[in-house]
């Protein structure tokens, strides 16, 4: 699988406290999005950095899912969507005519709220993406399956049942399987839309630990309703309200000394 060889050092528009010369993976500039007449995203400007976890928080309906689905252009599957502004992924505007959406789909993986394994064996769930990319060699596929399952911290639990249906796994195991399925195509970025909201506390903890490990090799953007989770696992946090980014900063600043009263009210549970 190819990896991009583009220079990724961008000058930063907005520097958070310690953010100097970090690699920008995604840079969103003046992004607006409408569903029909509903102005769902308003002038969003946000950088996202390599090997960091960026959390998107905010009350229901503020545009978190819309934003994350815009990053991989999935939102365009919805009818009557109109977008203005730019999202640069590795310095290329993903809305440019010449930009290849397939590149995004291979470089940017997504994990959804509800685990969504295919109705196939555990092995075939993981081998699915590599096979689509033309990998046929059984030995290589086996290696990818093991590496991906290990990467998602689920290998020990499933290594003796690789040829059983993935639906037989628990919810928490299915979610880690879905993360492994992402890893199998060697993504650059992993988008996660409320990945633990359907999981019990023990599975949630496992997925959170996994996210911490994965950021060594990937850049992760996570939408979460759970503020403790954002505080525990993210490096940067963006607080959305009514389609706007109210505040974006290092996570410890957002949760200790936010500069906007609305952020403070939200994180202290006054609304949302
Ligand atoms: N497919 C759609 N068609 C039309 N409007 C939509 C669609 N999806 C979302 N919206 C609207 O866009 C706005 C933002 O919704 P979005 O789902 O992005 O919010 P959210 O912050 O992710 O909410 P939640 O936390 O409840 O999932 C809302 O007003 C919502 O009604």
UniProtKB/TrEMBL annotation:
PROSITE patterns: ABC_TRANSPORTER_1, ABC_TRANSPORTER_2. Keywords: ATP-binding, Nucleotide-binding, Transport. Gene3D superfamilies: P-loop containing nucleotide triphosphate hydrolases. CDD domains: ABC_PstB_phosphate_transporter. The keyword Transport applies. Pfam families: ABC_tran. One of its GO terms (molecular function) is ATP binding. This is Phosphate ABC transporter ATP-binding protein PstB.
């Amino acid at each position: 699988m190819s990896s991009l060889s583009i220079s990724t050092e961008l000058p930063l528009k907005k520097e958070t406290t310690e953010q100097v010369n970090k690699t920008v993976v995604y840079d969103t500039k003046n992004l607006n999005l409408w569903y029909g007449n509903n102005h769902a995203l308003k002038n969003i400007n946000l950088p996202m950095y390599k090997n960091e976890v960026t959390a998107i928080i905010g009350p229901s309906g503020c545009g978190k899912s819309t934003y994350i689905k815009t990053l991989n252009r999935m939102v365009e599957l919805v009818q009557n969507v109109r977008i203005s502004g730019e999202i640069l992924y590795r310095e290329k505007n993903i809305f440019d005519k010449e930009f290849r959406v397939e590149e995004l789909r291979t470089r940017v993986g997504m994990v959804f709220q509800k685990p969504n394994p295919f109705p196939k064996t555990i092995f075939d769930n993981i081998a699915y993406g590599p096979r689509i990319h033309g990998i046929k060699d059984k030995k290589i596929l086996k290696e990818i399956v093991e590496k991906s399952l290990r990467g998602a911290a689920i290998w020990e639990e499933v290594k003796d049942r690789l040829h059983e249906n993935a639906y037989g796994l628990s919810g928490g195991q299915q979610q880690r399987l879905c993360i492994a399925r992402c890893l199998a195509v060697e993504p650059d970025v992993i988008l996660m839309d409320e990945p633990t909201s359907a999981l019990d506390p023990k599975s949630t903890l496992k997925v959170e630990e996994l996210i911490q490990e994965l950021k060594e090799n990937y850049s992760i953007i996570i939408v979460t309703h759970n503020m403790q989770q954002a505080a525990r696992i993210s490096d940067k946090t963006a607080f959305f309200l009514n389609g706007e980014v109210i505040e974006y900063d290092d996570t410890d600043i957002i949760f200790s000394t936010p500069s906007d009263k609305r952020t403070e009210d939200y994180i202290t549970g006054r609304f949302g």
